[in-house]
Write a structure and sequence with these properties.
Length: about 130
């Protein structure tokens, strides 16, 4: 049974930093495309960042490029999202997601491309 367990969210001030973790069981993060999505109240779920399975290629949404970084630790079977220079508009529930196909085979920014999802983790950034 696949489980994705997120941690590390919470409250931060604008300009601050947080690191989200997604600990996986039942799958190997280095063999899956692992991504972070977020959903703010009244908005659609949107792609934030992803890291492709074998090659480890990464992609980041334009809105977070230069501020957020996705990475993984294969030994810990965990994916991270380092978030720096946070802005109030980053406030959302952040979800970890996993899919078996590499970037080039899927529409990697689309939630429908992913089979497994974490429970979500609230990030709130105050002005």
């Amino acid at each position: 049974q696949v489980q994705l367990v997120e941690s590390g969210g919470g409250l931060a001030q604008a300009g601050g930093s947080l690191r989200l973790s997604c600990a996986a069981s039942g799958l190997t993060v280095s063999a899956y495309t692992m991504t972070w999505f977020r959903q703010a109240p009244g908005k659609e779920r949107e792609f934030v960042a992803g890291i492709s399975g074998s090659a480890g290629d990464t992609a980041h949404a334009d809105s977070v490029k230069g501020r957020f970084t996705i990475s993984r630790n294969n030994a810990k079977n965990t994916v991270y999202l380092e978030m720096n220079n946070l802005k109030p508009e980053d406030t959302a529930v952040y979800y970890c997601a996993a899919g078996p196909q590499p970037f080039y085979r899927i529409e990697y920014t689309a939630p429908r491309s992913y089979n497994y999802w974490g429970q979500g983790n609230q990030v709130t950034v105050s002005a």
